[in-house]
Structure formats: structure tokens, C-alpha cells
Write a structure and sequence with these properties.
Length: 438
């Protein structure tokens, strides 16, 4: 298999060279951090007075963790490390769940981020021969613009269609013979349903690759997308606080996401003890951004749960690989005292061939106990059989879920189109229990 590179020298650098570069860049980021009101106070409290306190990468542990709440409390300029006339772009969260978080970029910050995203695109084998349809939301959200700039830099023909209006998306895919798309996994599954509803065959498209991300998803969802479209689907990882897409991406081997260690330092810690974990051990992903200076962020607690995959990828890249995101420390459900991650449920139901492309997890109270209901859309052909066949399927799903999460759920089967569709991030969990009992 041909292994394409964007910057082969840095992508295959030795561990020693990578760590030397990380140390050099970390010291510069610490210098930038001392220019912000937030870190000036936070680092002084930790006993640091300048980047001279960083003599090795081991000294990174001197720096306290930074949290999303720190970003909110620093709104709007507590983490700004330069004058506003040096700021080239601002991205921000919507603030729908509280005070927004804001990230400032200098022109150089945008350029270095774009270069890493171009590296992501190229490592999947995409090139200037591809037509790239970006179905992620543009605007303050970083998912749309981040991939847009990187794909352009990699030479692809970019269609900035943004999210929504599925029939128009499909028409554009036909008109311009789109070969690569960028979308959430749930939206990719929904588009396939729309193709079937409108009798549009895969032969009318030219789709070959999909970049999927922005929401946790199981390996079985990726496989389902690949099977439904007969394409390659590549996992991507990013978060707005760390620029957006481009932290880590799968290469042509699809064996874990390469974390670009010249741009970021990744740590995996036990979310309860904060102790650093070895490669292969799952824990919370902690990231230090080494390439952004307008808004420095060090040891940021992402709340995402994953592990570093041991060993080296066949592609020859030396940057370590991140496993798929298993969930978040704050999306774990406690159901009658049992810890359950939504990803565990998805992993089970997406293995069942009769299950379609949409599902929802609902929680409420039945008396004093929690009640878990899993609503599942199944393929239309299943409703042409006997009631007994449907009941057998429902029972099989219940037993498989019980075998994994140890809780016996209520399972409801529906025809396609019954459950709500999301054109951005899917809302898979509806928790109607009282807030103080969740």
C-alpha cells in the first residue's frame, strides 16, 4: 500500500528529535502563557516564574491542569496573550450551556493549524485530484473552517456547502462527482437513508472517502458507513479549545489516529487520581498546544476517554496513535448504580444486521428506580414479516445489551424515519430523570 506524506521529515522524525522539538516549543508556549492574566496567576501559584523552570518534558507536570471552566471564567480576554491587532480570527462556543469559551488565533496560529490539517488530509491518500464536500457547520464552530483550509492547502477542490439540506447535499454530490466528504457519523448514516428513499444508487455518486468525527462513535458505526457506501471512512479527532480538527487523524492503514506530536503534547491520566498512565491504559486525554500563541492552553482536560496505542504504525510515521474516543468522563450514565457509557450500547446494536441507521437512549424514573429504554430503527423489510419475528429480534437485542451493560433495558423497535434526525452532532441520550438523581 502506498503511504503518502505531507511532511515526511517531521512525520517520521525519531523520538529523540520529536521530544527535542516539543521541549523547544513548550518553552515558547510557556513564555506566551505568562503574558495572559490567567496563566500569570496560575503559574505563579505553582511556583513558576518563567519558561526557565521548564528544563525537560518531565517538567510539564509542574503546570497545573486547565479546564473548560477556567476558559469560561477567563471570558472574554483572560487567556489572550497578544494585542488585539495581532489577532487574525476568533472562534467561540455557542454559550448555550453557560458562558462561552473563546479562542483567539494570530495569522501564524491559523497557518500552523492549517498545515497540520493538510497533513491529516494527505495521510488518508486524498489529493488534489479529489473533490471535497465539507458538510460540517461553518461559523464559530471550528469543524467547518478547519477542514476547509487544510483541504485547500492540500490542493483539493473544496465545496463549502456546510451542514443541512440533505437533498441538496446529494444533488451536489452528483453534480460535481464529490469523492471525499466530511460529516458527523450520524449524518452519514442519515444521508444513506435519504439515498434509498429517493431511489438514488451509489453508481450515481463518485464517493470514495469520508472523514468522520465531532461526536463519539463505535467501530461498528464506522464499519456500517463503509459497508453502506462501499468507501473508506477515516476517524478524526479534534476539539475547539485545541484549534479544532487536526489533533489526530487516521492514515491509510486505519489503525488508530496519529496524534501530531510536533504540534501537541498528549498525556493520558487516570480521571480520578490524575496519575499519568502508560501506553495502552485507557484514561482521560490531556493536551498541551505547542503551536498556538494568541491563546496558549497547557495540560487541557478534554474529558475524552481514550488510550495511546502501543507500537508503531505500518505507515512508518513515528507520532503515537490515539485509540478511538470511548466516551467522555462527563457522559457516563449511572443507571440504578451501574456505570454505563452510551458507546457501549451503540457498539452492541450496530452489530445487529437488522438494525438501521438511527437509535436513541432514553432514561426516566419508574417509581424509585431508573428505567432505560433503547429506541431502535430497523430496516423496513423487517415489518413485512410476522409479529413473532419482530418479537424475536426485540428479545435478541435486549439479551445482547443485558450481556454487555448488565442492565435489562426496555427495547422499542421502529420503522425508519420515526426518530429525530440531526444534521450536526446527534443527540443520542434523552435523560428525563430529576437532575439531582442522574
Amino acid at each position: 500500500m502506498q503511504v503518502p506524506f505531507w511532511d515526511e521529515r517531521i512525520e517520521t522524525a525519531s523520538r529523540g528529535d520529536l521530544e527535542a522539538l516539543q521541549l523547544e516549543r513548550l518553552k515558547k508556549v510557556v513564555d506566551s502563557a505568562f503574558k495572559t492574566p490567567f496563566y500569570k496567576k496560575r503559574l505563579a501559584k505553582a511556583g513558576m516564574s518563567s519558561s526557565d523552570d521548564i528544563k525537560s518534558l518531565e517538567d510539564l507536570k509542574k503546570i497545573p491542569f486547565t479546564t473548560k471552566d477556567d476558559l469560561r471564567k477567563s471570558f472574554p480576554k483572560g487567556l489572550l496573550a497578544c494585542d488585539m491587532d495581532e489577532v487574525n480570527r476568533i472562534h467561540s462556543s455557542s454559550g448555550t450551556t453557560g458562558i462561552p469559551t473563546v479562542i483567539y488565533f494570530s495569522g501564524e496560529d491559523v497557518d500552523t493549524w492549517t498545515d497540520l490539517v493538510a497533513r491529516c488530509v494527505v495521510c488518508t491518500g486524498a489529493s488534489k485530484k479529489d473533490v471535497f464536500q465539507n458538510m460540517m457547520t461553518y461559523g464559530l464552530f471550528t469543524g467547518g473552517l478547519g477542514l476547509h483550509y487544510g483541504a485547500e492547502k492540500a490542493g483539493m477542490t473544496v465545496i463549502p456547502v456546510s451542514s443541512g439540506n440533505t437533498l441538496r447535499q446529494v444533488q451536489i454530490m452528483q453534480d460535481f462527482q464529490t469523492s471525499v466528504v466530511h460529516a458527523t457519523p450520524s449524518y452519514m448514516l442519515h444521508i444513506r437513508t435519504v439515498l434509498d428513499e429517493n431511489d438514488i444508487s451509489l453508481k450515481q455518486l463518485n464517493l470514495q472517502k469520508a472523514f468522520i468525527g465531532a461526536e463519539p462513535h463505535s467501530e461498528n458505526v464506522r464499519k456500517k458507513i463503509e459497508e453502506l457506501y462501499n468507501i473508506d471512512a477515516y476517524n478524526s479527532y479534534g476539539l475547539s479549545e485545541m484549534n479544532g480538527p487536526g489533533l489526530a487523524f487516521e492514515c491509510v492503514h486505519k489503525a488508530g489516529m496519529h496524534f501530531w506530536e510536533d504540534g501537541y503534547i498528549v498525556e493520558i491520566v487516570d480521571p480520578e487520581t490524575d496519575e499519568n498512565l502508560e501506553d495502552g491504559e485507557p484514561g482521560e486525554v490531556i493536551v498541551t498546544n505547542l503551536i498556538r500563541h494568541a491563546t496558549p492552553l497547557m495540560r487541557y482536560r478534554t474529558r475524552d476517554l481514550a488510550s495511546i496505542l502501543p507500537g508503531q504504525c505500518e505507515c512508518g510515521r513515528t507520532h503515537r496513535r490515539l485509540s478511538r474516543i470511548k466516551g467522555r468522563t462527563d457522559d457516563m450514565l449511572i443507571i440504578n448504580g451501574v456505570n454505563v457509557f452510551p458507546s457501549q450500547i451503540e457498539e452492541v446494536i450496530m452489530k445487529i444486521p437488522e438494525v438501521g441507521t438511527n437509535y436513541q437512549i432514553c432514561l426516566d424514573k419508574q417509581g424509585a428506580l431508573d428505567r432505560l429504554t433503547v429506541q431502535v430503527e430497523i430496516y423496513s423489510k423487517m415489518f413485512t414479516g410476522s409479529a413473532g419475528e419482530l418479537e424475536n429480534l426485540r428479545h435478541r437485542i435486549v439479551e445482547k445489551l443485558k450481556g454487555t451493560i448488565t442492565i435489562k433495558p426496555l427495547v422499542k423497535l421502529h420503522e425508519p424515519g420515526f426518530l429525530p434526525v440531526y444534521e450536526g452532532k446527534a443527540k443520542r441520550v434523552i435523560d428525563e430523570r430529576p437532575k439531582d438523581e442522574q
